[in-house]
Each structure stands twice: as structure tokens, then as C-alpha cells.
UniProtKB/TrEMBL annotation:
Coiled-coil boundaries: none
Superkingdom, taxonomy of origin: Eukaryota
Gene3D superfamilies per UniProt: MFS general substrate transporter like domains
Taxonomic lineage of the native organism: Eukaryota, Metazoa, Ecdysozoa, Arthropoda, Hexapoda
Keyword Glycoprotein listed: no
Full protein name: Major facilitator superfamily (MFS) profile domain-containing protein
UniProt xrefs under InterPro entries: MFS_dom, MFS_sugar_transport-like, MFS_trans_sf
Origin species: Atta cephalotes (Leafcutter ant)
Amino acid sequence: MGLDFLADGGADFEHAITVTGFGRFHYMLLTLCGLIYMDTAIGVTILSFVLPAAQCDLEMDSTAKGWLTASPMLGMLIGSYIWGCLADTKGRKIVLIATLLMDGIVGIVSSFVQYFWVFLIFRFFNGFAVTGAMGICFPYLGEFQPTKYRERCLCWMEMFWTVGVIVLPLIAWLIIPMDFIIMSNTFYFKSWNLFVALCALPSLMLGLWLFTFPESPKFLLECGETDAALEVFKWIYSRNTGADPETYPVKCLQEKAKHQDKSTRSLKLLKRKDLKVLFAEIRDLTSALCKPPFLRNTALACVIQFGLTSSYYTLMVWFPELFTRFEQFEHANPGETTSVCIVSALSDNTTFFDPYGCDTIIAPSVYLHTVYIGLACIPGSIILPLFVHKLGAKFFLIFSLVVSGAVTVGFYYVVNSMQNLVLSCVFEALTSLGISLVYCVIVDMFPTNLRVMAAALSLTMGRLGALIGNLVFGYLIDLACVIPIILFAAFLFACGFFSFLLPRTGKDTLD
């Protein structure tokens, strides 16, 4: 390696992280961040199984289900930028711990709730917390990686999301059908309550595990805390090589010219004067994202997230209902075929007699179809990290968006439940791949002091798209089924076009 860097006043980040080696620490960090991402997959999709299981106990009609589905989305919309701002000013690790512990505690408490509106409020805060973990885990992981391994490590995260999508219906299938109940005159705790509590435990355990990991050395360097960053590099070197930390070959690091973030990290959020300084810093960073040279990348990230996320979450929420209606039609009309637009307009006559679905039993096929959709993501999750360094994240992002747009058009021509399941599997595999790839690209597109905030801003636009998408879909599906299909297909094709305009990523050291 040589020691020429000492003549310049110290080693830069790329040299410092490269000489730590790539070993045990990086594998443990990937495992931790991957499990966090898997946990967010569970947190985002858990309601798809809670809704039918809890509808009788919480007295939920269709309108109430709509409110409950929107509640965590609204929490994500509000929480995305708040957590991103805090992570770019106070630090990645501390904010990531806060989001995980909050999600775990709120999730466990919500499992004991007896009333719909209280449960709805708790799910809002679950969404508020889980979006912070989702937005921060990618930058946190990426800022520990040398350029050679960064893109590949980030792409392995998609596999953990896939595992989360597969594990959740299996846990639901195991727990929800159980004949389990604890009841008194004023309190009940059933199998669905147990399911909610169990799904909250990983957040608590991951938050506690994260205490044993260091702050991002890239972030510490950006804040001018070179001594703290050097200690982190020594610690990583020791974990990777088994050698004494003091034998780490780098003895000093390059100083940052600016240290404005250092004072921000030491601010107390409970003091009004310090809060004013913090808000001023957040305003300046937000303003920087909306001005050249970052404006173009910010706009592209936000537009792609809006179109992709609105299509993904809207259609994924609709798929289970569509499965059920296809099965109802095929049961009532054996051997006949129908279009997706006809089956989507079918009404459920049982709601008049059983408005809260107290007689509803979740069919095993609902769990099984969700498992199939998760299994369909595995090939892409393996292919992506193996070939991303050769073809680039941008290539895979464009491919996933354009093909998923074509699949969305294909839904119009579906005539039976099997075709619907196949297209649903392909759609989930490609769009979930696209969402992970957007995070990978953002890590490279922005400098350290703006990285999490840029991810948070794009995530906020994505959640806004998901909210609007669900409202538009619910309104238009009864008026003209073809319109929302064309709309979301157009969104995905447009996102594919805008992805062509993204800069090349994965080849240069982090700014």
C-alpha cells in the first residue's frame, strides 16, 4: 500500500477502510443490516394478515380496514424525513437504534390493545418508526464498505427482504389459526394478538444488538471527528484480522476542512436554543439537496420512488383481495374464465349479514399464495449481487422497472387465478428488486452529509405515492378497471425512462 498518504496529512477514507481488510466484521454488519431490512419487510406487510384475523374483535368494516391500512403509510410519510434529518445530523447508529426500539415497544404494546382507534394510532407510530430503519440501514451498511465490495454488499440486502416476505406468512400460518385465547370480562388476547407481539420482538433484539456496533466512520470523518473515526477503523481491523488494534497501519486521517456538523451532533434536543440550531442545519441541508449540483439527482430519486412505490404498494395490497375474488368466482362457476376487471367488480353479499367478518376463516391458500410470491423473489435476489459489479445497479433497475410495467399491462388479460398468481409473483420479484436498487443507487449519488436525508426525502415521496395510489385505485377500480392498470403501468415505464438519466454508480469511492 505504501505510506505516501502520510505526506498529505493522513489517510483518506478509502485507504483507511481498505487496510482494515474485509472479513468477520463486514459479514456481521451485513447480517445485522440485512435482518433490520427483513424486519422492515415484516413491519410493512404485517397488516395483510392482521386485517382478516382481527376484523371481528376490532369491529372493522371495509372503511375501517381502509383507515387502518392508511395509518402506517401516513406514519411512514411523516417519519421518513424526520428520521433522515436526525440521522444526517446526530448520527446513523443512535437514530437507527431509536427507530428499532420504538417499533418494537409500540408493536408489543399494540398487541394488547382492545379498541380499533387505539390500535390504529399505534400502527401509525409503527409506520413512523419502521420507515426510519428502512431508510437508514442502507447508508449505514454502505459507509463501512470499500468501493470494491460496496455495491455487492448493498445488493445482498434484497435477499433479506425476500426472506421477510416468505417468513411472515409462515409465522402467520403457524400462529393465527391456533385455538389460543386468554379472556376476562374486560380483556382478551387471541392468536392474532400473539402474532402482532411476536412480530415486534425482532425490532427490540436488533436494536439492542446494534449497541455493540460502532458509528459510521464515514459519518464521523464528515463531522470532523477524526480521532473517533480512527478508533472505529482500529476496531474493525482488529475484528477482521484478529490482530491488536494498535497494529493498524494507519496512524492518522485526513482532517475535514469544515466542522459545522460537529456542533450539531452535540446539540440537546430538549433545549429550545439547540433545537433552533438543529432546525437551521436541517433547513440548510434540505436547501442543498434542492440546488445544483444535487437538484438533478434529488429530483430523479424522488420521481422514481414515487412511481415505483405507488405501483408496488397499491397493487400488492390489492393482490390478496383479488386472489379471494377469483377463488369465489371459480368456486361458484366451475370451469368458467373471467377477466380481472369483472372479478374486481364482484361484491361480497355476506357483508350485509356479517359486517365485521366474524365468521371469516383465512383460507390456507391465502398464506400459500403469499409464500409463493416471496419464493419468486429468490432468483433475482441471488442473481443481483453476483452480476451487479459487471452490469451495474442501473442496468438491473431499468430492467426491473420496464418488465414490471409490461407485467402490469398483462394483468388486464388475466382470465383465471393461476395466471393472476404467476403475474403477481413476477411483479413482486421485479418491483421489490427495484425498490432495493433505488436505495443502492442513492448511497452512491449523494455525499455523506446529505446521503440519509436524500434517501429519506425520496422515501417520503414514495410513501406519498403509496397513499395517493391506494386512494386513486380504490376510486377508479369501480368506475373503469382499465384506467388504474394503464396508470400504474405508465408509472413504471416512466420510472424506467428516468432511470436512464441516473449517474453511473458503484465504481467510485464514497464522497
